[in-house]
Records
---
Amino acid sequence: MIEVGGIGWVTAREHGCAARGERTGSDDDGSLDRFFRDGLFAYPFKNHGRLDRASRLTAVGVALALRDAGLSYSAEEKQNIGIIGTSDEGSLASDLLYFKDYAECGRTLSRANLFIYTLPSSALGEAAIHFGLQGPLLYLTAERASLQAALETAEEMLELGEAEAMLAGAVNGQEALYFFLTRAGAGQPNRLGSAREARQKAAKGRTLGDVIQQFQRRQKGES
């Protein structure tokens, strides 16, 4: 069985960790800079100022999920953990920003630090580099229920032995939600049920915000 070892989320209003029972209101200005300043990350996130919004949300969501699972990481350590992400918007916001910069520069050039985020998988790459993830990396698109598809794909990878653990999640708008998944008996406490149960709960939400609320209610002991 594949178990959920940790869940982390961030929205415009708050962020939290499911197993730890943490929900903290956000006084951020929308840039997410406070997360990179105030000790969420085990060590400084290199060049975080250049990250696009999807990459910032992904980094914060992953950091919260790892914290919830009680998993440590460092700049020197590499771990056999994979990551799968999805988004309803892909890299559209960064694509538009890049093209705007290109047009304003006379349609002859644009900044390279904008170009690198025109791939929807770039956010996952930034997270993999910082957290030392050496397992599979996959950006997934699906016509419907992309978060459930990401969770199911992560389960399959674990069952096939492609990684010791997987991170699976989604970023939409100003919200991010990430799950830390492991095989049963892998040494992580099972406080959040199975990955299958997580998929079923995720299916109850029409938006990512709805899904986050499903796990917030679990913290309160609601069904």
---
Amino acid sequence: MLHLASRIIDLCPAPDEHLWLLARLQQREFVPLIRSLRLSCYERALSGSQGVNELEESLAAHTMLQGQAAYVSGEIFCFEDHVLFLLFENPEAGSPAGMRAGIVYERGTTEPIRKLEYFCQTVSECLMESGRVESVESSAALEKSGQSSRSDWRPATLSDSKGFARFVAKQDIDALSTIVCKENATERVRASELLDDDYTRLFLRRAHEAYAEGLPINPATEDATFPSEYTMNRLTEVGLLRREVLVSCRKTGHTLFSLPSADALAVMTISNARCSECGAAIADERIEEVAAPTPLSSILLEDGAWMVNRLHTIIRQLGIPESEIVIEPPTGDGEARLLARVCGVPFLIVMRDGDLTPAFARRAVGTKIETDARHLVIVVTGAIHKESRLSLHNFANRMTRSGSDFELIIIQGMSTVREELRRSFEQASRQALAEQLCELNSNFGLDVAHFINTRFQLLHEMKETNRRALSPVSEEPAQALQKRAHSPSIVDHEIFGMSEVDETAALNP
């Protein structure tokens, strides 16, 4: 999936200076792709490089006189792991005068925002050096006086960002910071991953109820429905369960001690402690190992906290930065809400560890209207009521008929969440990229957004192919190792002057 970030500035050189700016950027090692293609075409038409610049200037002037689309409405700059673009906004098309710079990058791109900031700084420096844009020269004086400068690059604001801002404004900033720290905790991430399984959650809830009633679960006495030893070990490793040694009176069955380990039991035994019920020694009482739930399991199972952690982890793994994710603090109704922006497009994710009821559906629709999110994702672990599904689809149809770009996704269970979100995120990324770069299609002669998407895909495939070619798996060492493993002896007896037959005879005289 591709990611997008952009900056805007209120300054823009005149149309007849666009080519000059691109030439200066090329001197700074920002090679314009569209202009390079045009110059290559002109060079072929003229059978040489002589007269290429004159032909380009003539075509640019002719385009301006004809009142057609600008000869240079923008440019793209391709690098190994990212693509930069520069757009000259056209006031006649309804856009405010200025420039828009942006970067298209993958998750593995290092410091994409820093690269975008450096590109914006380079564009500003080129304009300052030219002396043709007076506002750039006076920007320093404006900054000293405390006024906003038109030469300042700022993040591009989208219409969808208002709902995101309202959602953030409703939350407590300190609570949001605490939630982010908790959801990134390693132990919570590992534990929440195991809770994807329905039976694991059912077992832990049963363990909590039994432990609260003073009846801890004993793995040795449970029936076939009890989790396997491997599952028990996994739950213990991630901190959802803990092993305890339970000491109870043989006569009354009353619980005497709940010890954390066998070492603690040894200390109690050596101290000659006795039962307060029957007076027998602790060593003579009933001793068994039980599984007890931990406070972490209680926290994760409450209010669907484990679902919030799983969704947060999946979204981060898909490449969405932390700054684009907002988690609503739990309200105690068993539901959770998360808002994420993908290339500026808001996704509202409403989740519940239970059924999709009509009341839950109405609350999800209300939150969607409040945040004005284009995408509503509902994740539940239980059954989907027919009335709920029908009301949600009717709402989606009304949104579509009214001309809104709206998508409804209903997911039952956590097994398909990653794939559904990945598909929807990629689609939103492609649409956002096409909306940003559609102005360059006439200059490029092709769909620029599709070109960039295909370029990244092919580069990724070529890197994978080259990686496999550079590190081939040799069959000879594997075969030699296998032959060596099946040999009757790994000692070379010839070194010691004896054969394997001699060794056998020596061992069996």
